[in-house]
Amino acid sequence: MSSVLAPTPPGEKHSVDRFEAISFPEFVGSSYGNPFAKRGISAPGPDEVFNDEAPLLEELGIDLWAMKKKLIFSLFPFREAPVDIASNSEMAFPIWALVALSIILLFAKKLVFKQILATFLLSTVALDGLIHLMVSEFTARNRDGPISTEIYMVMSAMGYGVLPVLFLAVSRTLLVSFKSWVGGALCVVTLVWAASISTQLLSRAMAVPQQKFIIAYPVAMIHAVMILMLV
Amino acid sequence: MEEAIHAAPLAFSAMKMGASHYNQVFHDSTSFIHRVVNTKRLQFYFAVSNQQILRKIGVLLFPYTHSSWKRQTHASEASIPLTPAEDINTPDLYLPFVGIVTYIIFCAMGYAVDASYDMQHISRPVVCSIAVVAVELIGFKLASIAFGIAGPPLLEIVGIFGYKYVSLCVALLLSLIHPIAYYMALAYVAAAFGVFIMRTLNPLLISQTEQRRAGMLSDPMVDQADRKALMARTYFVFIVGISQVAPLILLGMFRPAFFLLAPSEVTM
Questions:
Q1: What is the pTM of this model?
Q2: CB contact under 8 A, B46 and A136
Q3: Do B104 and B13 sit in the same domain of this protein?
Q4: Do B7 and B131 sit in the same domain of this protein?
Q5: How far is CA B211 from CA B121, B230, B258, in A?
Q6: Which residues contact B212 (CB under 8 A, 6 or more apart)?
């Protein structure tokens, strides 16, 4: 049976298979450019559509429930994060948020795609290295088993801290001039908010409440550098 | 697996521990990073906690009231070293590392507000701090060989001498207020850090002599040699403490000219 993408050689009839629900015009000559030419597998009907394939979002790895829970946590990060949302590595929102941040800053006549993405990537990898050094078997002597620091978990935690920076970028572009004290206060509030989101997620996922503030300091520095890019 | 839990719970937990240990050893032996750097030793120096960091910064800035500077040993076994979280006198590497990064970001940030981006403002502090760390490490190792002292291990030397970046950052914060405030803060920080490093190095270098002196009764020849060695080491520690002023002044030269209360321009 030929594959879907390769045209059937001329003269060869298609093999009979289970996707015979819709009848298309017969194959004549080369099938390039002819959208109705019959290929190796004919188009399946609406009932047998992609029986063995997963839904699109699941194939892409976008977990909407986890994203929703994490976003609701990000809006009010001052209570303790549940472990299941702290330790899952939802990467769709961070990627979208970084690109959206760069696009919003285009309205402010700043072209910062390269800076924001590069800063986020490098600083998250460095933070992952630092956390891997800090959270070890020495930190809690009665730990059983090794601690795995997954890079995507750290990236996800830092990426959900970009949400307040998005709000700040919107307000900077549309509403407030940053030369006044209101802009400065808004920057500080955004920094505290973003740092507390990421720190809560990280310290809950690594189960190190006694190291929360020493994780918070590098996280706050990284977010401060990103905020400085949009000022 | 469920029947294993009920049948022999001890065997099950042993199985779990064995599996996790095997995973860790496999991961350590095959990953690239573990061939380059000894992660376990580094992890020992990064095992810090919130309270310990705060106390350490307090001791750095005000070392005059800290009473016991000796490194403590584990309560039951003397061979297990205490992590920085358990013993405040153990040098850690977290605070120097974060201090260096804060120092670099501070030097660069004053120019970021002006939106004048120049790579020099980042690269000069980076190169300077790496050079200072390397020179101090090499100098201390050479001096300890010259004096015949068995000094602390390499990472601890980096840690002890790296604490100056933290005090320097505090002084740089005060430099935002007024240029004169910076010089006053620098003088205080140099004095405090000198005292800190003298008192930290003292137990590490002189303990051998004092142990011998405590063990033996007064034998005149040995006592004379001991006293000379003790004096040599005391001078060494004193010179190390005094010479910390030079790196502090050098590193402070990269600070931005950005003041909040000075009569000249006030941006932002």
A1: 0.78
A2: yes
A3: no
A4: no
A5: 49, 12, 52
A6: B222, B226
